[in-house]
Design a protein that fits this description.
This protein is of the alpha/beta class. Helix content is 35%, strand content 14%.
C-alpha cells in the first residue's frame, strides 16, 4: 500500500513564472526545490501537451485538466502535480529551456492528439523531448506516454512513431462507431457521460503507472550516492545515470564541480564522500584529466578517495572500451586489485555490461540492505561469491533474486565480464574465481556444453590456489527444465556431488523452479561451517594466469557424473 503524500499544488502558475530564479546571467532556471510530485524524484506527475487551437473556442483542454485532476485525486487519495504551458507559444517561438525542464521533470506525458497537434512543430518537439529523456525511468510493462485521442484523424493521416498504439496508452474521446461525435463535458452536452467513463479509464491507467513508479522509487532506500565525475566522452552517460538515480529516490552528490582552475578541490571531494553511503564510477577509454599537482586522474582520485573511506562502490566499465595506456593499467588494477586486495575487502561491484543492464543492476544493488555489517549469524564468515552466468540469462528473474539474496545475507557478489580485449576474458574469469570464496554456475538458458566447460575451468583454476579444499562450488539449476538438466543433476538436487578429487563437493542448488531463499541454504551452511575467520587474500601460484592449466585428467576421470568434452 502506497501511503498518501501531501504535495503543494502549483497547478495555476502561469508558465512556471512563480518558480523561476534569475541566474544573473540573463538565463532562467527552475527552482526544483519548491515542488514535489506524487512520484519521488519528479516535480510533476503529468505534463499535458496540447495544441492551442484545441482550447480556443470550447476550452476543451481547460475542462479536461480540471476533470482529470479531480479524478486522480479520488483514485490516488491525494492531489497530483499537473503542468501545462498556459501561454502556449506558437510555432515561431523558441522552444524554451524552461519547458524542456518541465517535461524532463514529469513522470507521465499526456498528448492531446488531434489534427492540430500533429501539425504543430512545437507539440512534436515537446513529445520528442520527453521520449529522449524518458528511458532513464522506464517501468517494465508500462508506458509513460498517454495518448488522449481528442478527435478522429482523417484517413491516411498517421501519428508519429512515438505515439504508436502498441507503445502507448490510447484513450478515445470520440465515438469510434461515429467518429464525427466528439465527447464533451459541458452541461448541455449529450456525450458527457461517455466523456466521464473514458476519463475514469484514463485516470485509472495513469494512477497505475504513477503508483508503479512510486513503489519502485520507495523500494530504494533513498541513499545519498556519490556519482563520480566522468570524462567528457561519458558526460551524457553520467547524466543518464544521474537521472536514473534521482527517479528512484536517491540523492546525488557532489553538487559542485570538483575541479577549480585545474586543481582538485579536496575539501569538496571529502565532503561529498563523507555524505554518501555508496559511490558509483563510470570508466571508459580515457584515463582522463590529471589535476594540477596530482599524479592520478580525477576519476582515479575519486575512486581512491571512496576506497580509503571504505565506501561500498559500484564501477561500470564501458563495453568495447579501447583504453589508453594509463587507463589500461588502472583498469587492470581495478579488476585484479593489484594482487593485494580482494574484491570483497574493497567492497566493489564491478560491472562490464551494457548501460541498460548496468542501470538495472545498480538500482538492485542500492535497493538491497547494506552489505556491511553482515548478519550476526554469519559474523566472521567474510568473502564474496562469484556468480557465473551467460549473457542470455541477464534478464532472468531467478538470477536477480538469487543475487539479491546473497547480498542480503552478507555476501557481496562479483559478476562475470562479457566484453574485453582479446585474450583478456579467460584471465579475468580465472582471477574472478580465485579472488572469491565461492563460485555459483547459474544453469538457466545456458547450453549444456557451456556448463560443463565452466565446471572444468573452475576445477582447473582452483588447482592454482592453496585453498582449493575449502573453496565452495555450486551449480544453481533454474528454469527451463530440460531432459539433459534433469539427467545431469536431477538425482542430486539439494545434495553435494563428488565430482573432483581434492576439492570440496559440488553443491547442486535449485530444482528447476522459481527461486526461494531455502534453495541457497546448503551453500550458506557450507560457507558458515567451513570458515570461522575472514579468509586471507587468495594465494596464487607463480604460474602465469595465461599459461595452460595443470593436468587434471585424473581428477576428472574420477567423477561419478559425466563431464562432456
Amino acid at each position: 500500500m502506497v501511503a498518501a503524500k501531501s504535495v503543494t499544488n502549483v497547478l495555476h502558475s502561469e508558465s512556471g513564472a512563480n518558480n523561476l530564479t534569475d541566474t544573473g546571467l540573463g538565463n532562467r532556471r527552475l527552482r526544483m526545490d519548491v515542488m514535489s510530485g506524487y512520484v519521488p524524484g519528479f516535480d510533476h506527475d503529468l505534463f499535458i501537451s496540447y495544441a492551442h487551437l484545441d482550447n480556443i473556442n470550447s476550452e476543451w483542454v481547460n475542462d479536461f485538466e480540471a476533470e482529470l485532476t479531480a479524478r486522480l485525486a479520488v483514485v490516488l487519495g491525494t492531489r497530483v502535480e499537473i503542468w501545462r504551458d498556459r501561454k502556449k507559444l506558437n510555432g515561431l517561438d523558441k522552444f524554451d529551456e524552461v519547458i524542456a525542464q518541465r517535461i524532463q521533470r514529469s513522470a507521465i506525458f499526456a498528448a492531446v492528439v488531434s489534427p492540430s497537434y500533429l501539425n504543430s512543430t512545437y507539440c512534436l518537439k515537446e513529445l520528442r523531448c520527453f521520449v529522449t529523456n524518458a528511458s532513464a525511468a522506464e517501468v517494465p510493462g508500462k508506458s509513460r506516454i498517454a495518448r488522449i485521442r481528442k478527435m478522429a484523424l482523417l484517413p491516411g493521416v498517421t501519428e508519429p512513431q512515438e505515439l504508436a498504439p502498441a507503445e502507448t496508452l490510447g484513450f478515445p474521446f470520440f465515438d469510434e462507431t461515429d467518429t464525427t461525435v466528439e465527447f464533451d463535458i459541458r452541461p448541455e452536452s449529450t456525450t458527457k457521460e461517455k466523456y466521464r467513463a473514458e476519463l475514469k479509464n484514463l485516470a485509472a491507467a495513469i494512477a497505475g503507472v504513477l503508483t508503479a513508479m512510486r513503489i519502485r522509487a520507495d523500494k530504494a532506500q533513498g541513499r545519498i550516492v556519490f556519482l563520480a565525475e566522468a570524462t567528457a566522452k561519458l558526460a551524457q552517460i553520467r547524466a543518464n545515470v544521474k537521472d536514473e538515480l534521482i527517479a528512484n529516490g536517491h540523492h546525488v552528490v557532489p553538487q559542485r564541480p570538483l575541479l577549480k582552475d585545474g586543481t582538485l578541490d579536496t575539501d569538496a571531494l571529502e565532503e561529498a564522500i563523507g555524505q554518501a553511503s555508496y559511490a558509483i564510477h563510470l570508466f571508459g577509454d580515457s584515463y582522463g584529466v590529471i589535476p594540477d599537482g596530482s599524479k592520478n586522474s580525477l576519476a582515479h582520485a575519486q575512486y581512491q578517495s571512496a576506497a580509503n573511506a571504505k565506501l561500498p562502490q559500484i564501477a561500470w566499465i564501458m563495453p568495447d572500451a579501447d583504453p589508453d595506456e594509463r587507463q589500461k593499467e588502472f583498469l587492470r588494477d581495478l579488476r585484479y586489485g593489484a594482487g593485494k586486495t580482494q574484491v570483497s575487502e574493497r567492497r566493489l561491484d564491478l560491472c562490464e555490461i551494457g548501460l541498460s543492464e548496468f542501470k538495472e543492476a545498480m538500482i538492485d544493488i542500492l535497493a538491497a540492505p547494506d552489505p556491511c555489517p553482515p548478519p550476526v549469524a554469519l559474523k566472521g564468515v567474510g568473502g564474496s561469491v562469484y556468480l557465473l552466468f551467460q549473457k542470455e540469462d541477464i534478464e532472468s528473474q531467478e538470477l536477480r533474486e538469487l543475487r539479491r539474496e546473497l547480498v542480503n545475507v552478507g555476501f557481496p557478489v562479483a559478476l562475470p565480464v562479457f566484453q574485453a580485449q582479446p585474450g583478456e576474458l579467460r584471465s579475468i574469469e580465472e582471477q574472478r574465481i580465485v579472488e572469491n570464496v565461492a563460485t555459483i554456475i547459474y544453469y538457466g538458458n545456458a547450453q549444456d556444453a557451456w556448463v560443463d566447460q565452466k565446471r572444468k575451468f573452475l576445477i582447473n583454476s582452483l588447482g592454482k590456489t592453496a585453498r582449493a579444499g575449502d573453496y565452495s562450488r555450486a551449480v544453481y539449476v533454474s528454469p527451463p527444465k530440460t531432459p539433459m538438466k534433469e539427467l545431469e543433476f536431477g538425482d542430486f538436487l539439494g545434495r553435494p556431488l563428488l565430482d573432483a578429487a581434492g576439492l570440496s563437493p559440488l553443491l547442486v542448488l535449485g530444482d528447476f523452479g522459481p527461486f526461494s531463499r531455502d534453495k541457497l541454504k546448503p551453500l550458506i551452511e557450507s560457507l558458515t561451517r567451513s570458515r570461522s575467520v575472514t579468509p586471507s587474500p587468495p594465494v596464487v601460484t607463480t604460474q602465469s594466469l595465461n599459461a595452460d592449466p595443470p593436468d587434471t585428467s585424473a581428477a576428472l576421470a574420477a567423477q561419478p557424473t559425466r563431464l562432456r568434452n
